[in-house]
Design brief:
about 425 residues; alpha+beta; 20-stranded antiparallel sheet; about 30% helix
Amino acid sequence: MAEAIFETDLGPFLSKALEWSKSFRQVALFQSNDFSDPYGKLSLLMAVDAAAEFSALAGKALEGLNAFRNAYPNQWLPGFLAYDLKNEIEALSSRHEDRLDFPDAYFFVPKIIIRTVGDDIAIRADNPVAIFQAIDQTKLTSSTHRFQGTLKTRMNKQAYSQAFDQLRGHIKKGDIYEANLCQEFFATDSELQQPELFYQALNRISPTPFSAYFKWNSRYIFCASPERFLAKRGKQLISQPIKGTAPRGQTPEEDERLKLQLLHSQKEKAENVMIVDLVRNDLTRSATPGSVHVAEKLAVYSFQQVHQMISTVICEQHPALSETQVIEHTFPPGSMTGAPKISAMRLCDQFEASRRGVYSGSIGYFAPDGDFDFNVVIRSVLYNADKRYLSFHTGSAITIDANAEHEYQECYTKASAIFQALGQNL
């Protein structure tokens, strides 16, 4: 394979690249949307077409992924890990029906890599010039997507409140001290025309630092995630859990007030600290002794729809562990489970009304230099075009001080960009 650098206008080029990629079975796109990230390495990475691929259900998926990574150590490997890998890592199960039919782990070796290098585009392929010319000459067939279907929810307000009360009862009994209760919005017999344009619309409405578009055959993931699950940079492992959410204000004054409320909220800070402690504990299993530390604590970052409280936990990776072992020790992301982690996952599965699947899992990539970067799959839409089934989840944290009405409304706040991109009312 060869690599060549091209000067071009990134915005139009990316639109053409997504249109051009429609004929391929595998497409992965990662964008940082120019967010300031001291741990970021790429502002854009696009991987197209598979020279080799790995797909597995929970059982021995991580063992298989490790072998796949070892077989292609100097390659880009984009892919995703579903939340239900918890059933392989721990003695857990998922009682709900799998309506989307995604694998629990999927990665591929791309034939074509497109990435940004400064203001230019680098293409790595057998014939990068031919790829650039094909993309540059692509005509855009449409300017907008179209969604046909009616969104429903698996949990109405009453059902959510009942699940909330039951989980809070377990908190009162001391079984857990935090749980992340999630609910599904879905559409059956639906059609999402021009899915790549839907992703672009979602990314315009809700630009985030861990945005991703993933296509595998007739299955799609449209991800507007603001959260990093786990990254490796040299010897360092970095996790940045989010816990604590506030809506954006209608005026600059209201926006600043809501941001300060979040910053000083004892409840939101307590939620964040609980998950930071969980992440620290998870990372200890993969760290050289004494290296786990909190680099940034309870920082508030602003996104298009919400303010979020984010902490950063860092350690030095133990040299005896592989990349997949490190991921296994920390998966699923603690911000999506609750604490203690295993008990919270077991109870969430009991009281939720749907299977999470890829939601609450992670999308990302292994890089040729040994680094990796994986997000948390939140604010994301999953779509199976063959089954005509579209789905997305939202969740919020339940603690002893939580209020059911507030947490229920928070779920809708987090879903607002998706509703807008689909042209549906809240």
